[in-house]
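Recall that a protein's primary structure is simply its ordered list of amino acids. Everything else, from secondary elements to tertiary packing, is in principle encoded there. The following example makes that idea concrete.
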Amino acid sequence: MAYENSPIFVDETPGIKHYCTCGESSNKPYCDGSHSAKGTGKTPKEFMIEEERRYVICDCGKTGNSPFCDGTHSRS
C-alpha cells in the first residue's frame, strides 16, 4: 500500500497515537510495523492527541506539519 494523494479523516480520542509515515501500513493512518518489515527507513510519528475530535492526517508523505495534512498533496 503506497502513499495516497489525499488525507485520511479520523475521529480520534485522547491518548498517544502512532501514525504511519512510510505509506506502507495496512492500518492507515496508524503504524502497523510495515516500515520495519519493508525496510523503508522511516519511523512512525508519535503524537499525543489532547482533544477528542476529527483530525486530518497526511497520507501523501509530503506535509510540513506531520502527522497532519497541510494541503501539500493538492499543490503537487
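DSSP finds two helices and four strands in the chain. The beta strands are 8-12, 15-19, 45-49, 53-57.
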